[in-house]
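Course assignment 3, question 2. Fill in each field.
Student: A.L.
Task: Predict the tertiary structure for the chain below.
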Amino acid sequence: MTIAIVGAGLGGLALARVLHVNGIDAVVYEREPSRGARGQGGMLDLHSGTGQRALREAGLIDQFHAIARREGQDLRLLEPDGTLLLQEDTPDDAPLERPEVDRADLRNLLLDSLPEHAVRWGHAFEHADHGLLHFADGSSATYDLLVGADGANSRVRALLTDARPAHTGQNVVELCIPDIDRTHPDLATMIGRGNYWVLGDGQSLSAQRNGDGRVRIYLSFHHTAEDWFATSRIPFDDPAAARARLIDLFTGWDPRFTALIAACDDTVLQRPITTLPVGLTWPSRPDVTLLGDAAHLMPPVGQGANMALLDGALLGLALAAHPDDFPAAVKEYEREMFERTSTAGRQSAHVQEILMSPDAGQRMLAFFQPG
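Answer field:
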């Protein structure tokens, strides 16, 4: 029985690894030409009960602990006028409940755990029919079970549901300060070792320390239209002018925060935030299923990667438990996944609503310190 996984992201690779551990072959088809063809984004906090559970099932938890950053759990929460609302510093002996890990390092860990032939690079999936995968280069491959692990804009999803991601009213500009400890030690000290959030009315700034010495800056603009990047008068083709325009959009904020924007390099990326409907389901099919963002795209508030990893691990375990009955394995997996990710989706939507509210700072403080 041939298992084809479309997409070499974290969820697809976790599935391939758990299958491999259980003696089941699968092929991962990835549109990128090589593992290093595209940047993989920033840091992830892997939760002990979900993302880390998946890595335990994959036999990779010790290797994960070797690359995880306990200090990445540090948090500083501020208001635009510079008021510090919350500072949490992680003790050196704190449990690894939600350590940060560089997404690229985690992906490489999963890739290195698979046989070299398990991932077929440069295979851009176009469509599937009658047990055949068709790729953009004209080639094809057979399958008995097709797993769509191809992210927010999944092509496999259309085989199961008409649902499409919808814009949330949030648009994010991503910037970067490389080697911050050397180039801007004062800003490095201000940000600390983990996550730094400044939450305002209608917009926010977050800074995230990465394992390679860079800090990624995310500027969020709430209650904005899907075409906001085109109408914002931010000249994205001129990084210096774009930074100047972004600083103007944060007029009235503490100068330390606009200094972060001024310190950034020429990385200026547009990130519209979209989600799938919370609680999305579909009638089970014996030969196709989905995992990760392809199945349950959520706001980027800490659940997505964890859910994708656990999806992959649990689907792999279900297939290993029913090696001669893929339809039963798919039904078992989907039943659990729908319930688990619906709960996670509701939680994520609640956090997203807090972040987009006029009093986001105070509400987030109450979220972290209930009662």
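Instructor remarks: The radius of gyration is 21 Å. The chain has a mean pLDDT of 95.
Grade: pending
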